Amino acid sequence: MPPNYRRCISCRKAAPKEEFLRVVRLHPSHDIVLNQGIGRSAYLCPQAECLRSVRKKDRLSRALKAPVPESLYQQLLQQLVVSPSR
């Protein structure tokens, strides 16, 4: 994979990291946030079907090795609504 490319945890598409939503488990607090901070990260395509799949199969929790709060899924859904063609 070329440098600065990442892979979606749902559909496995590889693309430049700017095309994805980034979910981060912050170090050392273990809080989970969107698009900011340093820590363990997972990348997700900005598509509703990828979000549905990740939520259904609990892939985000497994990738981050931490439970993901329901509020974070709501934030991700709002990101999709605000910028669907991102």
Automatic annotation (TrEMBL):
Gene3D superfamilies (alphabetical): YlxR-like
Signal peptide range in chain numbering: none
Ranges of residues in domain YlxR: 6-77
Classification via InterPro entries: YlxR (IPR037465), YlxR-like_sf (IPR035931), YlxR_dom (IPR007393)
UniProt cross-references to PANTHER family, sorted A to Z: BLL0784 PROTEIN (PTHR34215), YLXR DOMAIN-CONTAINING PROTEIN (PTHR34215:SF1)
Protein name: DUF448 domain-containing protein
Organism, scientific name: Myxacorys almedinensis A
